[in-house]
Design brief:
alpha+beta; 24% helix; 33% strand
Length: 136
């Protein structure tokens, strides 16, 4: 069965530092789709993060590139399989050069989330939701 994929493209200031950051979070690089100005970061079978030097990113748009340390272009949300996995990923992000983003979000026993900024200031939310509540 076909599974639609999403490719999130982000402009970064330092490609090598960004590659190091995301691999320290446990994500793999797909070298087949990486070069000296772009890195393909595999989040899951259906989610790929394309991090690009700003010059390369600018080749895909005529609009001004947002300075993600000063403005928000998007909130990127990732699901996690448990509350513990939320904490594990966010703690790794902070230990690897990211920064906390906002307060821990708890919605009773069915939803839990935390957030971080990557080294370029891109905002990532990590959320666990109780599958029985989602299905029901």
């Amino acid at each position: 069965m076909y599974q639609q994929m999403i490719f999130v493209n982000l402009a970064v200031n330092d490609l090598e530092a960004s590659k190091k950051f995301f691999t320290e979070l446990g994500f793999a690089l797909n070298e087949q789709f990486s070069d000296d100005s772009t890195a393909s970061v595999v989040i899951s079978d259906t989610i790929v993060l394309m991090i690009m030097k700003k010059e390369r990113f600018g080749e895909f748009t005529k609009k001004q590139i947002v300075d993600s340390s000063e403005a928000v272009e998007a909130l990127l949300a990732l699901s996690a399989e448990s509350r513990e996995k939320v904490d594990e990923l966010v703690d790794k992000a902070i230990a690897s050069g990211g920064a906390p983003a906002g307060e821990t979000q708890e919605q009773g026993d069915f939803m839990y989330g935390r957030a971080f900024f990557d080294p370029d200031g891109h905002h990532f939310e990590v959320v666990w939701m109780d599958p029985s509540v989602i299905e029901g």
